[in-house]
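> agent: user asked for a holo structure of the chain below bound to zinc ion. Plan: (1) validate sequence alphabet, (2) canonicalize SMILES, (3) run complex prediction with ligand conditioning, (4) return tokens. Step 1... ok. Step 2... ok. Step 3 dispatched.
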Amino acid sequence: MRQYARAPHSRAQCAWCADVELPNEVVLFNTKRTGDAGRKGDTVGTLVCANFECNVNARKRPRSAYLGFLDKLRGRYGPGTFLVLTYPDLSYQTTALADSIRQIVKTRNDAGDARVSALYYDNTALGLDLLGCDWHPSQHDHQILAAAIAQHLATLPLTW
Ligand SMILES: [Zn+2]
């Protein structure tokens, strides 16, 4: 397999990760076909991240989309509304989700919107059984999560 010498003129999408916010170039890789066709010089090609960054790109959270969603909520519910970003323990040996949520909250807070906060659900510490369908929270877990949200809301300067 070899990398084609020239990058495409327009912004291409990687056929492997299909990430729409790529920080890297996408280039054409091609290789000979198998069998007779290949021996005659036929090739097959695909557009892929130049240095195979797909793995990292696919794990990156779309922060701009999340920030846009918060803008939409803020627009709909007004500046006095508290927005709480909850995130579960989805570690899978990465802190990507937690890092993204914390960064999104910091971005909003730094921009002067102090009414955005985060609430982390520590599955183990909360004692969740995750016996819902496909390891999602069960009814037992939802009651615990509701109590965790109530506890978080109690720390906010709510006046209702
Ligand atoms: Zn890719």
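> agent: step 4 complete. Summary for user: The chain has six helices and five strands. Residues 61-153 form a domain with the Rossmann fold fold (CATH 3.40.50.1110).
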